[in-house]
Amino acid sequence: MSTTPTARVYRPTPRNLALLARILAEGGLVAAPTETVYGLAADALNAKACRAIFRAKGRPANDPLIVHVASIEQADEIAVLNDAARKVAKLFWPGPLTLVLPKRDGVPDIVTSGLASVAVRLPSHQLFRELIRRSGCPLAAPSANPFGYVSPTTAAHVRDGLGKRIGHILDGGSAKIGVESTILDLRDPKHPVLLRPGAVSREALARVLGRTVTVHRRATPASTAAIAPGLLERHYSPRTPLTLVRKLTPALIQKTGDKHALLFMQKPAQISDRTFWLAEAPNAFDQAAHNLFDRLRSLDNGDWDHIHAELAPGSDALALAVNDRLRRAAAKR
To answer: Domain named YrdC-like: which ranges (predicted)?
Structure first.
């Protein structure tokens, strides 16, 4: 039996965009690029279409979806935007920031895992916004990969993971940022909570809101409906076991086996055939975030028994995002 994926990959021509938008408007699924990672999109107001996302990904129903919109006005049709939400949206949208807010009545329960809140985002990726505009639909879109596996940042990643389960992939090149959006809970605007770190920093949000933004520390149990996606203890995980360290020192390296890959945060001085890195220079966290999922996938597809990875130093927003993804990827099965 052939193992060749069946999904078709489309170039972003006007004709193809019109076709893919029509597929979405008619209740179909389309994998498409955003500035963070590739998403598996469906009409967010079509419960049947959104259930198809869960089936294709093997995603549990207690892990809600993010609804992507093309304007703040469209966001207001999905969620109840308070003054704090409008303030941060004005500064950070379009962009890699998701807001959790009370939902409007028309949003299906399958999208929100039955909760009274909804996660909403206005992406900056022109192709994704064009699909929203042409289809006339807000688009629910989790990462376009089998649930729990390393997120996709290229069309090839999507095809490798979901090529047998979906029919349509829009190729927009490599995702610019490479890790998922920052998620901010603003259901209570007096007590904003950072649920997931991303490219928009906690400090920047606190400055705009004029108040402290607390950090959500506890992983969501697998049996409980999550407030937002990406909060499970184990997520973004390669099949190959992954161990995290603060620093890959010579003493630690000496204890590892020949079939253990070494993933440095920056390019090391000494390189061997089992040495890999996320960035060329110190503190290049934008490069590390951009390369993270691609590198984890590459190592996972290699002949390695184990991956040892360094954590990013410091408190830069993308350093924290990289570490969040690495910790969830390394969590015990």
So the answer is: 14-200
